[in-house]
Prior knowledge:
Layout: H1 2-22, H2 26-34, E1 36-38, E2 42-45, E3 50-53, E4 59-62, E5 71-75, E6 82-86, E7 101-110, E8 113-121, E9 130-136, E10 144-151, H3 152-155, E11 164-168, E12 171-176, E13 182-186, E14 201-204, E15 209-216, E16 219-226, E17 238-244, E18 265-268, E19 274-278, E20 283-285, E21 291-299, E22 307-316, E23 319-321, E24 330-332
Antiparallel strand pairs: 1-24, 2-22, 3-4, 4-5, 5-6, 7-8, 8-9, 9-10, 11-12, 12-13, 13-14, 15-16, 16-17, 17-18, 19-21, 20-21, 21-22, 22-23
Amino acid sequence: xxxxxxxxxxxxxxxxxxxxxxxxxxxxxxxxxxxxxxxxxxxxxxxxxxxxxxxxxxxxxxxxxxxxxxxxxxxxxxxxxxxxxxxxxxxxxxxxxxxxxxxxxxxxxxxxxxxxxxxxxxxxxxxxxxxxxxxxxxxxxxxxxxxxxxxxxxxxxxxxxxxxxxxxxxxxxxxxxxxxxxxxxxxxxxxxxxxxxxxxxxxxxxxxxxxxxxxxxxxxxxxxxxxxxxxxxxxxxxxxxxxxxxxxxxxxxxxxxxxxxxxxxxxxxxxxxxxxxxxxxxxxxxxxxxxxxxxxxxxxxxxxxxxxxxxxxxxxxxxxxxxxxxxxxxxxxxxx
Length: 336
């Protein structure tokens, strides 16, 4: 009997040792679980996110004003977010479009200051909407509005919203547009106005809005959104991409067909849990060199508003993709 007990004890010890070596112990599983995150990372409406990393180690996120006056959130890990303020107050908010909403902000750190480009529009006001810029010394503000860069009827582009700022060759450019073509134009050295004599240049067709351009390995990747953003569970928003050898294009899909003719590759589409997957932020890199993208979606479980989503961007043959081309539910979190 004693011999049998000794054999059983030895067998139990061997099983425990094997479990630890193969990573099957409860402790390992708990640790792994703690390194995962669930989508959405913010379960209330934060549409059209734009992000910049500040010297204090935080990422600062700005969103369309479903929370009035452009909400500002911050995070150190892209997963856990806290609201730290608003870009404007009711007294300081831009006013060039009376009763207009502040949509699709684009945050940038330029020459030691934070420049916040924004759209101001009313639903249906496609010829009076426009794009403005505000400036702050700190990412949490307060922001001082510098006014309108242009309105649709001034620049000659219907539905002039969704700005994106980029620098190239020592020059500053603004890209913009929403389902009436995507365009670009050069800005002044301070970024507060259109450069005198600059002419707009069309870079993509009429299927797109929410432009973002990412530079990688000699290519320019134009991310954009197609479909309807704001129809609740009926939203068809989808994140797409094309690439080019040059900033101003031509941007092409994998078969060489141009985005100017509304050809593209799908990056993120709907699944059973989330629909309306679009208007992505800048691509951000964690400490292990992994790329991450935030965007908004409508949650089937919580369909009020557009919640904040996070997914890893991977690359194959110099083309970006998200695993399964749909939002993740539970995934390993970024490493910082």
